[in-house]
Design goal:
By secondary structure, this protein is of the alpha/beta class. It contains 13 helices and 8 strands. The protein is globular, with a radius of gyration of 17 Å.
């Protein structure tokens, strides 16, 4: 599947893959785990048609960006904030509309709490927050030790994580026929399998969002929109309501027939809600 990142730059000495689409007011899209910017591919055309310039990149250790060799290089939620700051500087962007999914939402929350002057509006789509992650299933695997999964034969690894990814959507057949194998290629094989654990799973630590939980109300000084899949089993809709209550003035839209990977299940509806929100806050 054709990626939506086609350029590269060095941010803090690490190669980051990025793409820029359309013209107009800047909108930056952040992805989550275990996906990449590709998850936004069906939302981007709606935004460019509506007159926005859309910026996407793959987080450090994800997708087509560099997979750092040294474990000392921080690819956690907190570690991705300087990467976001770096790409914004590379693009020459000041104030932006920020849209984030999954752990990208943790990055966006931290960035916005610490740099509210840089954010024109904030949209959080099925995001992690507070201590909402890792999921019970992943937590159990981490408690049992990840060594067996890290060293699992390729076929067993692919089978396990293919089923895991399919659980992120309401319509697994659609995902199977579109982006599933591309996402699998990023987290499988000699590099992808090791990278998944080193750069993603070992950083599934809620401290990155609990550290700012007592400041989350500050986001209410900005226009904030929450979009959630009604059938999200990774970040259940209860978390959407908790965030909605914690952020004064925030808007909440819950999309039916939609799982955690909502940009895969319902990209057109996400784009419709997002564009309406952006136009009211431009």
């Amino acid at each position: 599947m054709q990626p939506i990142v086609d350029k590269n730059t060095l941010i803090n000495g690490n190669r980051i893959a990025y793409g820029i689409h359309g013209d107009g007011e800047p909108v930056v899209l952040l992805h989550g785990t275990p996906s990449s910017s590709l998850i936004w591919r069906n939302v981007v055309p709606h935004l460019t048609t509506a007159g926005y310039r859309v910026y996407v990149f793959d987080l450090l250790g994800y997708g087509l960006s560099e997979r750092p060799w040294y474990p000392s290089i921080d690819t956690s939620i907190s570690g991705q904030v300087p990467i976001l700051e770096g790409v914004l500087a590379h693009w020459g962007l000041g104030k932006i509309h920020l849209v984030a999914h999954d752990i990208g939402g943790g990055v966006a929350q931290r960035f916005t709490v610490f740099h509210p002057e840089r954010v024109r509006s904030l949209t959080l789509v099925d995001v992690v927050s507070f201590d909402s992650y890792p999921s019970q299933r992943t937590k159990q695997q981490m408690q049992n030790g990840l060594e067996s999964l890290i060293k699992a034969p390729d076929e067993k690894h692919r089978s396990h994580f293919r089923e895991w990814l399919l659980s992120a959507v309401k319509n697994p057949q659609k995902l199977s026929q579109t982006s599933l194998e591309t996402f699998m290629s990023y987290i499988s094989g000699p590099m992808g399998q090791a990278s998944l654990f080193q750069h993603q799973i070992r950083h599934y630590d809620p401290k990155h969002t609990t550290e700012i939980a007592n400041r989350i109300h500050e986001l209410g000084k900005l226009p904030v929109q929450l979009i959630w899949g009604a059938d999200d089993t990774w970040q259940v809709v209860d978390w959407a309501h908790k965030l909605h209550q914690a952020i004064p003035g925030s808007e909440l839209d819950i999309i039916p027939d939609c799982g955690h990977f909502s940009p895969e299940d319902q990209p057109d509806e996400i784009a419709r809600i997002l564009i309406s929100f952006l136009k009211r806050n431009s």
